[in-house]
Amino acid sequence: MPEPTSFFTDGEAYERQTGRRSRAVGETFLNWLALPQGLRWLDVGCGTGVFTELVLDRCAPEAIAAIDPSEHQIAFARSKTTAGRVDYRLGDAQSLPFADAAFDVAAMALVIFFVPDRAKAIAEMKRVVRPGGTVAAYMWDFAGKAYPQQPMSEALRELGYEVIRVSTEITRLDALNDLFASAGLDDVVVRPIEIKTTFADFDDYWESETGFANPVVRQIRGLSAIDVERLKALLRDRLPTDRKGRISYSARANAVRGRVPV
Known about the structure:
Elements: H1 11-33, E1 40-44, H2 50-59, E2 63-68, H3 71-78, E3 87-90, E4 103-109, H4 118-128, E5 129-140, H5 150-158, H6 173-182, E6 186-199, H7 202-210, H8 215-221, H9 225-238, E7 247-259
Parallel strand pairs: 1-2, 1-4, 2-3, 4-5
Antiparallel strand pairs: 5-7, 6-7
Helix pairs in contact: 1-2, 1-7, 5-9
C-alpha cells in the first residue's frame, strides 16, 4: 500500500515543486485524449487544481468538478482566480459524491499510485461517467525509475537511505492497462509521456525539489547536516548542467484511457 497522503498539506510548496512539470505532462495528456469541447469533466485527486486549470484553459468544458481528500489542497485551489468556474469538493476517489453518469470525462492526474484501493477508484470513475464517456489517468513511472525526483532518490540510496518502500508496479504501462481492462472499460489504450524539467541553477533545483514534504523530502529532512551536504555534492556532480548552470533532465509519466461501455 502507498504511503499515506498526509504530506499533501502545503499548496504553495506543492505548486512550486510540481507545477511546471505537471502542466507539461498534462498538456500532452489532453492532446492525446483529443476530446471535443463542451464536455462535463471530473478531476479526481485534483490537488491544488493544476490539471483542473488546464482543462479549463484547453477544453472549454460545459462544467467541471474537482475532488481531493486534502483540506489544505482544496483550500488552496479555491483561493485561485479560476475557482468560481469549478465545483471543488473535499472527498475520496474510492467513494465519489456524484450521481451515476453525471460526467462525460473523469480523469486522474498523477494520483493513482497514492490511492489504497485503485480498482474501487476506477470503478467509481466509471460509474459517474456516462456510457460512451472517457475514463483516463496518468502517473509518474516510478517502476521504470523515470520520475522527476529519481536523481535525488538515487543519491539518497547511495548514502544508505531507501525512499520508496512499497510496490511501484501499478505505474507500469501494462499494469495500468490491466487495471482499466479489469474495470470493464472498452478500447483501453496506454502510452508513455516524456517531459523535460529545467531549473535556472542548483539553488533553484534544490529549493523547488525540497520545499514540499513528500516521502523523498521527508527523508532529506531527517538527515544530519553532514549528510545533507553530501547529498548536495552528489547531486551537483551528477545532474546534467549546461555552461550557464541550468539543470535539465527528462522524466516520464505513463497514461491510460478507456471508454465506458454503451
